[in-house]
Design brief:
Number of strands: 18
CATH architecture of the largest domain: Sandwich
Strand content: 35-45%
Shape: elongated
CATH topology of the largest domain: Jelly Rolls
Length: 297
């Protein structure tokens, strides 16, 4: 009997002890922070921050796109530059890699960058252009009285107020030449041709002359070739090349034929060769040079 009572008491004590532990566990759960809730809240905060960062990146990309669009479609105005020569020639490379050799006493005005539809420069004097090919963006040279348009070619432009003309000589490719007036006709020039815009007569015409083409490019390559050319034509050619006035004293020497190549020679040397060849005398009067002699017959 006593044994049974002890066993019963023991069980009652264990039950009391277990109840106490259970109560403590419950209290701990009520008052302690919920770790699972913390983890969920932390994950939600991470997702919110990530979304905000993505929105910031998207906003930056969108702004960049808008800026790029306006830069491409509404480019800023180009800055215009000018190169002017007096006694020397200079080489100029334009924004499109077109190369220009500017003759003495000349001026070229050009932009630091070309617009989308065309490449335009302005010339006063003389220059040789080697144009970079671009089918979608024509290259245009404007002078006081003429307009030259090309896609990609090599040509010389001479625009001097003293002669009141523009001479365009094509070395390669094709060139479109027009006057500045709205009703001006178009002239297409190809290799070896020279086009002329005459401001006094309003005429536009072409010349096919190897001598004149060589003369037009003499300042560039320092070469003149005459093949049995009559002296009066030689005199006119030299006058154009060196901007002097060369005359013949009589008709007897007019038909003397010059068959020679001048290369890297100045005017005085060329005149001396011609005078010695035909036994001529050279007379000078201010800016005028006169050949005189008995003729070549």
């Amino acid at each position: 009997m006593y044994f049974l009572w002890m066993q019963s008491a023991k069980k009652e004590i264990e039950q009391k002890i277990d109840s106490k532990l259970a109560w403590e566990k419950l209290q701990n759960r009520i008052h302690s922070p919920n770790k699972n809730l913390k983890v969920v809240a932390k994950e939600q905060n991470i997702h919110i921050r990530t979304a905000k960062n993505l929105l910031k990146v998207a906003a930056v990309l969108f702004i960049g796109y808008i800026i790029g669009y306006f830069v491409d479609n509404y480019p800023s105005e180009p800055q215009y530059l000018s190169q002017k020569t007096l006694v020397d020639t200079i080489n100029i490379t334009l924004a499109d890699h077109t190369s220009v050799k500017l003759n003495k006493n000349s001026k070229l005005t050009y932009p630091d960058k070309f617009q989308k539809k065309e490449r335009k420069v302005k010339l006063k004097g003389e220059a040789f252009f080697k144009v970079k090919h671009n089918k979608k963006k024509p290259f245009i040279v404007e002078t006081k009285i003429a307009r030259i348009k090309v896609l990609g070619t090599e040509f010389n432009v001479k625009s001097l107020d003293t002669i009141n003309k523009v001479l365009v000589t094509v070395q390669s490719g094709k060139v479109e030449l027009t006057g500045i007036k709205k009703d001006s006709k178009k002239l297409i020039l190809t290799k070896g041709e020279t086009g002329i815009v005459d401001n006094e007569t309003d005429e536009i015409y072409k010349e096919e002359s190897t001598i004149k083409n060589d003369a037009a490019l003499y300042w560039l390559n320092k070469k003149l070739i005459f093949k049995k050319t009559e002296l009066h034509i030689v005199a006119q050619t030299l006058s154009n090349v060196f901007n002097v006035d060369i005359k013949l004293a009589n008709n007897d020497i007019k038909s003397c034929r010059v068959d020679v190549q001048f290369e890297n020679m100045g005017l005085d040397e060329i005149l001396e060769v011609i005078a010695v060849t035909f036994d001529l005398k050279i007379k000078r009067n201010a800016n005028q040079i006169i050949f005189d002699g008995n003729g070549c017959n």
